[in-house]
Structures are given as C-alpha cells and as structure tokens.
Specification:
This protein is of the alpha+beta class. The chain has 16 helices and 15 strands. The protein has three domains: 36 residues; 96 residues, Phosphorylase Kinase, domain 1 (2-Layer Sandwich), CATH 3.30.200.20; 188 residues, Orthogonal Bundle (Transferase(Phosphotransferase), domain 1). Helix 5 packs antiparallel against helix 9, helix 8 runs antiparallel to helix 11 and helix 14 packs antiparallel against helix 15. Pfam families: Pkinase (PF00069).
Length: 397
C-alpha cells in the first residue's frame, strides 16, 4: 500500500479523536517537519512520519498481542472509534495559544494538586465517545525551563510502556500564552481509584461480583510491575490512589511523577523523600537509603494487604485501626503507616483465617529488601495459589 493511501485511511479513521498537529518530529534525523509545507515525509532523510511507520506493522503490547492493520480501519461512530483500541493510536504533541483552544470538553474533575488538575474529557469531535483522562500541569515562568524536561521524561517513560494494565499517553499539548500549561491525555479515564473501590465494596456489604475481581487484580498488578521492572523502570509511588479501575479492568498510573515535578529534581537511586506517600513507602525509602525495585514490591504488598482485607470480608478502616501504634514521643497520637506497623499484618490475617496471605505479605514486607520476592516470582506464586486466569497479561507467565 502506498504511503499516500495509507495516510488517507489514517486521516479518515482517526479524525474523531486525534488532536490535529501542526508538525511532527522525524524519528531518524530529529528535524521538526511542518506538515503544511512537507506533509508526512522528511525532505532531509526521506523518513516517513512515525504514525505511518508504526501503524504499518503489527503492534504488540504487554504479554499478549493485538494485531491491528490500519488499512482495514473504517469510519464508524465516535463511540466505536474511541474504544479499547484507543490504546494503539499514534502519539501527537500540539501547541495552542491558550487552554481555550484545546479541542476537548471537560466532563468531570477527577483530582487536583499543587501542580494542576486531573479531569475526564472528551474530544469535541467524538460526540458521546469514551472518556480520556487529562492531567494539566501548570508551568510557572520561573521554573518552566527545569520543569518541562522532567514532564517530558515522564511522558516518554509512559509512552514506552505497552501493557494491558498500565495507562497509555495518547497525546500531549502545551499552551504558549501565560499562564502556560502542559496537558497530558491518558487512556483510559478510570471510573474510580482502587481506594474508593475498596471502600465502596465494603459499604455495599461486599457484593460477590466485585469481590471476585480482587484476586485476579492482584495477579494483573503483579504482572504490570514485572513488566516495568523488566525494562529497568520503577514505579516509586504505588498506592491505591495511583491505581484506577475501569469496569472489570485495573490500571497502574502516575509513575512517581508528582514528587519529581514538585521537587524539580531528576529521578535517582539516592535522594531525599520528597512528596511521595510515606504511608506505603518501604523502610529504606523512609530512611533515605539506596532503593530499587524491591521498594515497589513493598508498596505493592501494602496495597495487597488492603485488597486481601476486603476479599476476606473486612473493612480497610478496621484493618488500619487494628494496626495502629503510638507515635514515639507522642503517646497521645497513633499511626498506621506500614513501615511502623507491618508486624501487625501477620496476626491480622491469621485471625481472619488467611495464613497463606499472612505468609505472602511477610515476604513482600520484609525489612531487608533482598528477602522480598521479585515481581516475576510474585506472579508465579499468585498463579499457583489462585490457579489459571484468563487475562492476556498472564499468557506468557
């Protein structure tokens, strides 16, 4: 198929949800190519635009595979076009004068922080299509030069990850008029985060349909962590609020970006604990020691403890109360951060009649990082206990 025909099909198929870019960067010579002047072929090195190059081949993601040929794409309704296959659309970056010109409609706010907001949006051309999450980061004039490379680095990390249970960056944009913003469009927008899911299930008297999801979700999360660790990437901030639920699917999001951006420093093996969540942090992170992939396993163990608590028919709030300990030198105050109360987790699950989970968490929450299982070993242990699961992320385990 000729590149012109390929582009014609691409433009027709993806028009409803693709931000129209004014330029693209050649992946070969890195030159900025203005579309209206040169189209989709770099005049210097003759390389074809990245979307054409990528979509012309079979795409693999996670441990499963998805075969998609753009030549077979057809124009359908917006809700059909923005679907689970949105995970495979090409990445674009666009500049707008201000946020008023960004062609999306805000549906609801999902969260906010010191750096900006996260909301659920739809592309204006998509009608009633699927929701996309948008993270908008404010770029103060005095810190933009240092902040922007960190944001772009985080975007590049997420773009390099293709797994069924990791959110995908599908587009970014920057506004050029003060106050300047950097927007990141992420698929999918979750229905709720895991913390809210666990609370809702508890308040609804533990409905069987939702309860059945938890064991499979543990395997899927372990699979996602095994995937990023195999690529020498650490999450660095695993907690229920950084895990989103969409229907019966679960996704990792926010790869430690918040503390990198707010601190204005690059990600490193050493360094102070800045802005990350102490509640779920490993002891070596709290102590500012060198930390690596085992720190992710510790944090995941904390999340598993809360998931298993609900799976065993108890509320997370009661689990926290059971573990709470007096704060040293402040006997009138209590804490339930995991690094200070991990010794209470085994007895909790023993009392619940779940000694297997007590044993697993003892390994994941070991004080010595070297004693914790790898993510891949964890996946294998979970599958031996729960039995075969249908999710594609586990096909190659």
């Amino acid at each position: 198929m000729s590149s012109s025909k390929f582009l014609e099909i691409e433009e027709e198929s993806f028009e409803t949800f693709r931000l129209e870019a004014a330029w693209w960067r050649c992946h070969s010579c890195l030159r900025r190519v203005v579309i209206k002047d040169e189209g989709y072929t770099c005049k210097d090195c003759k390389a074809i635009c990245e979307p054409v190059r990528i979509k012309a081949r079979k795409t693999r993601f996670g441990f499963g595979s998805l075969i998609e040929d753009v030549a077979q794409a057809t124009t359908g309704t917006a809700s059909q076009q923005i679907s689970e296959q949105c995970i495979n659309i090409e990445y674009t970056h666009t500049e707008y004068v201000s946020h008023k010109f960004v062609p999306v409609t805000t549906i609801k706010q999902l969260g906010h922080g010191s750096l900006g907001v996260v909301d659920a949006v739809r592309f204006n051309k998509s009608g009633d299509g699927a929701l996309i999450a948008r993270k908008v980061i404010r770029l103060p004039t005095f810190s933009r030069k240092n902040l922007l490379p960190l944001i772009q680095q985080e975007v590049n990390v997420l773009r390099s990850l293709t797994h069924q249970h990791i959110v995908r960056v599908i587009s970014t944009y920057e506004t050029t008029k003060a106050p300047r913003d950097y927007g990141i469009l992420i698929f999918p927008a979750g229905d709720e985060d895991l913390g809210h899911f666990l609370d809702r299930v508890s308040e609804s008297d533990f409905p069987e349909k939702e309860m059945k999801l938890l064991s499979g979700w543990q395997c899927c999360l372990a699979s996602a962590i095994a995937y990023i660790h195999s690529r020498n990437i650490r999450h660095k901030d695993i907690k229920p609020n950084n895990i989103i639920c969409k229907g019966d699917k679960i996704y990792l999001t926010d790869f430690g970006s918040a503390h990198q951006f707010s601190a204005g420093i690059t990600s490193s093996t050493d360094g102070p604990l800045v802005g990350i969540t102490k509640m779920y942090s490993a002891p070596e992170v709290i102590a500012d020691d060198r930390r690596g992939r085992p720190a992710d396993i510790y944090s995941l163990g904390c999340v598993f403890a809360e998931m298993a608590t609900v799976a065993d028919g108890e509320r997370v709030e009661e689990f926290h109360e059971y573990r709470s300990q007096p704060i040293p030198d402040e006997s009138d105050r209590m804490t339930y951060v995991y690094h200070a109360t991990a010794h209470m987790i085994g007895p909790w699950f023993t009392e619940l009649g779940d000694p297997w989970m007590a044993s697993l968490l003892q390994e994941m929450l070991a004080v010595d990082p070297k004693r914790r299982p790898t993510a891949q070993n964890l996946v294998e242990t979970l599958l031996r206990h729960y039995g075969p699961l249908k999710c594609l992320c586990l096909q190659r385990v």
